[in-house]
Amino acid sequence: MSSCRRFLRSSLLVVSVAALLVIPSGLFAEAVAAIPANKGFATIKEILDRSCSACHDWTATYEGIMSGGRIVAGAPDKSLLYQKIASDQMPQEGDKLTPDQKAFIRGWIAAGAPSTELPIAVPAAEGSAAQASSAPAASQKFLFFPDKETFHAVTGFASTAFFIGAGIIGTVRFLDMMNEAHAYRDSIGWDEDTGDPAVRTAEIKAVWARNQALRWWHVGFIVAGETLYIGDAITGISMFTKHQPGKLTKHDVHRYAFFLHASMMVAQVGLGLAESYALSTGQHDLMIGLGAAHAALGLAIPAVMLGAGLENLLLPE
Ligand code: HEC
User: Distance between CA 93 and CA 281 in Å, rounded?
Assistant: First the structure.
């Protein structure tokens, strides 16, 4: 193949991989945007700060709000705080809470009263035309996204897509090299059992060095994916949830997946560097062993990311 045709072929591959990836991540972004813009506990805090803090110190902290039987997680009707606002006993003075605010507090308690800023699915308030959750939420823009959660979800899925793309490109690169080397082997009639191993070593080195375009596309996709992932991780850390003893929430699972991803990624970069070393020094068996491990981990990483993203997006609180 001439170098021009090689370049065309590489570009075509990369463009189609990118198209394959962008379409589904766009769909994910839409699904994420459909989640009502509310900020979980932060919205609760906003309501209580505005309407209750003048008379109650306990509105200052999550622990304060949760104590004294005011909130029975999962049971709004047993929660003193909800009883007080539902019956309009509270706020004792000033404007009563709106039906939407009441519905939001009810939905938050029903969802287990999480301390996170993650959006909560809230049914519409009775007699209210608007979706309850849209009312109290003063959504805060984050970079170019409607809020931090959307940014987190979009960068998470997009980086997953880049890692899948890197995997496809890496696989094509590997098969390319293999086909080229095996064609050469057959053309000179070299034999696995009787041939001089130095011939094979030299050919692997040569094939590896010859066309490096896809190799750098592979690296580029990983760098792009990892850059997005760092943005994702930083916003994720700011949304870290406390573990509730005796309870495994979907946020716990998401957090474990985060640590699992980090360790897999470190191992994967190590394996990738080792694989480059095996190829550049023409070590056939080492290259196969490392390549198989690299490919298996390369499948596991986006699977864990996708699983963690979907789990958090689709499961209820
Ligand atoms: C103007 C002052 C005032 C405001 C504003 C007010 N409260 Fe109260 N609240 C009181 C007083 C006084 C009591 C104690 C008497 C009672 O229980 O009726 C009380 C009692 C309570 C209690 C039971 C005791 C406790 O501390 O757990 C809850 C729950 C409560 N308020 C919730 C709220 C909530 C929620 C809001 C805001 C939506 C609010 N209050 C706003 C004055 C106020």
Answer: 79
